Amino acid sequence: AQSVTQLDSHVSVSEGTPVLLRCNYSSSYSPSLFWYVQHPNKGLQLLLKYTSAATLVKGINGFEAEFKKSETSFHLTKPSAHMSDAAEYFCVVRRGYGGSQGNLIFGKGTKLSVKP
Amino acid sequence: GAVVSQHPSRVICKSGTSVKIECRSLDFQATTMFWYRQFPKKSLMLMATSNEGSKATYEQGVEKDKFLINHASLTLSTLTVTSAHPEDSSFYICSARDWASLPLKETQYFGPGTRLLVL
Q1: Rounded to the nearest 5 degrees, what angle is found at the Cα of A45, between the Cα atoms of A44 and A50?
Q2: How far is it, in rounded angstroms, from Cα B94 to Cα A12?
Q3: What tens digit of pLDDT does each residue of B39-98 get?
Q4: Terminal Cα distance for chain A, rounded
Q5: Hey, are the CB atoms on A44 and B106 less than 8 Å from each other?
Q6: What are the two backbone dihedrals, phi and then psi, of residue A53, each rounded to the nearest 5 degrees?
Q7: How close does chain A come to B99, measured CA to CA in Å?
Q8: Which residues are within 8 A (CB) of A51 and not within 5 positions of it... i.e. 6 or more apart?
Q9: Of A78, A65, A79, which Cα lies nearest the Cα of A107?
Q10: Contact across the interface for B51 and A100, Cβ inside 8 Å
């Protein structure tokens, strides 16, 4: 069965410093992995996704993630944090393929705080 | 990008009443929609998968008679919380998958959520 584990429930960084949000996955086959962001009172927004193409995935707003099979990790990074990056971030794995099995399994989330 | 709307955004109701939440895909057709529940400071929990024109598939532990799902058209799915009780208070989020566009079909688009408070 697929699952994801977000290693930090809360990460705090200063504006302009790098961001690292950690995620490990468990899957019996090559997974489809996603990072979503949830701002207060807004819908979840897809940051990026990995679907067995390039292992380094670039997303929106300067975020990127690297799929490392040997470490079963899919950590999210950004070189320089902005105040607007403060939000809840979810690492997500897709369960199965297509149809009713194509739904998503969410990690518990990491709250990112950005200090001025 | 694709837009999914939910209505209402928040609702307060009395215990024992039923509440209907709508999820609409505004600029694409969604043969499959998903309903999630999010508790405070918790992750999203999938409740059910809604397929247009057929019965919803519920996750283990989710009462299908309590959470009625109808997906009558390619752009609308509804979740009805029947005989709501305070423990049903939560944040309900829907998502829709756009099957028409091949590059996008792996992506789910999420609604902004509906906050339900049962008194």
Answers
A1: 120
A2: 29
A3: 877 788 999 998 888 889 999 999 999 999 998 888 999 999 999 999 999 999 999 887
A4: 41
A5: no
A6: -95, -130
A7: 10
A8: A32, B106
A9: A65
A10: yes
Amino acid at residue number A35: W
- For residue range B3-23, list pLDDT tens digits in order: 899 999 999 999 999 999 999
Q: What per-residue string of b and e applies to A92-110 under the rule 16 or more CB within 10 Å gives b?
A: bbbbeeeebebbbbbbbbb
Q: A52, A40, A11, A27: which is closest to A105 by C-alpha?
A: A27
CB of B13 within 8 A of CB of B25?
no
Residue type, B99: W
Using CA atoms, how far apart are residues B60 and A50, in angstroms rounded to an integer?
28
Q: Could you give the C-alpha distances from A65 to A22, A29, A68, A106, B87, in angstroms and in order?
A: 10, 19, 10, 17, 37
B chain contacts of residue A90, beta-carbon cutoff 8 Å:
43-44
Cβ-nearest to A109 among B43, B95, B110: B43
At position A11, the amino acid (one-letter code) is V
Q: Beta strand pairing status for B10-13 and B114-118?
A: parallel
